[in-house]
TrEMBL record:
GO molecular function, one term: cellulase activity
Domain Glycosyl hydrolases family 45 active site: 25-36
Signal peptide annotation: 1-16
Name listed for the protein in its UniProt record: Cellulase
Keyword annotations from UniProtKB, A to Z: Carbohydrate metabolism, Cellulose degradation, Glycosidase, Hydrolase, Polysaccharide degradation, Signal
Superkingdom, taxonomy of origin: Eukaryota
Catalytic activity: Endohydrolysis of (1->4)-beta-D-glucosidic linkages in cellulose, lichenin and cereal beta-D-glucans
GO annotation (BP), single: cellulose catabolic process
Source organism per UniProt: Triangularia setosa
Keyword Hydrolase listed: yes
Family (UniProt): Belongs to the glycosyl hydrolase 45 (cellulase K) family.
Length: 245
């Protein structure tokens, strides 16, 4: 059966909107090289930028072994920590699992999260997918934030001398802003963000939709997807300062 042009147009419009729906969040910071930092994981010409043990950019096009592997020396860069853009919007990165999709589709894609529960209900955060969590459920965003818990893997001990299970609890991380004071200097702002802008929220639910990445995010990750289901051209300025109340 041949579909009418109006129906075909609506189908095309729906697909052009990219992934959207409802989901959940958790938090982590394991210091490991993100999965999307390996070459060939997406349509991007370059993978997610990683750093050496001293937090210097590697610019190796993804060839260095992860710090979570034996003999590895590639780690998450500290500047891929979340930050507040204004009182109600933040930018950051996350490990992602989208129902019915795969890593090739979500690596380096961006998603606008609207929090629907907890103290951040109504606030929005745009995250770029830089990692894939083997333990994540469907429509699950594991937001990267220093002090959020290392989870399954831990390269923070190797990179920063963190305790064997990372800072705080292995799952969940530290429990108060005061704990951030003992963090490495480059990770303190991201740790504080959790208790300031994020208001200590504990795994809030979200509505999400795929959006073009802000240039301020891709300037740090260096990963820009080519056009696919949506126009992936980064939007806005490449530098956005941290908002403080």
């Amino acid at each position: 059966m041949q579909l009418p042009l109006t129906i075909l147009a609506l189908i095309g419009l729906a697909s052009a909107q990219g992934a959207q729906g409802t989901g959940k969040t958790t938090r982590y910071w394991d210091c490991c090289k993100p999965s999307c930092a390996w070459p060939g994981k997406s349509t991007a010409s370059t993978p997610v930028l990683t750093c050496d043990r001293s937090d210097n950019p590697l610019n190796d096009r993804g060839s260095t072994r992860s710090g979570c592997d034996s003999g590895g020396s590639a780690f998450m860069c500290s500047n891929q920590s979340p930050w507040a853009v204004n009182e109600t919007v933040a930018y950051g990165w996350a490990a992602v699992n989208i129902a019915g999709s795969n890593e090739a589709s979500w690596c380096c894609s961006c998603y606008e999260l609207t929090f629907t529960s907890g103290p951040v209900s109504g606030k929005k955060m745009i995250v770029q997918a830089t990692n894939t969590g083997g333990d994540l459920g469907n429509n699950h965003f594991d937001i990267a934030m220093p002090g959020g818990g290392v989870g399954i893997f831990n390269a923070c001990t190797q990179q920063y001398g963190a305790p064997p299970n990372g800072w705080g609890e292995r799952y969940g991380g530290v429990g108060s802003k005061s704990a951030c004071a003992s963090f490495p200097e480059k990770l303190k702002a991201g740790c504080n963000w959790r208790f300031d802008w994020f208001q200590g929220a504990d795994n809030p639910d979200v509505r999400f939709r795929q959006v073009a990445c802000p240039a301020a995010i891709t300037a740090k990750s260096q990963c820009v997807r080519q056009r696919d289901v949506i126009d992936q051209t980064p939007t806005g300025p490449s530098t956005v300062p941290t908002w403080t109340p």
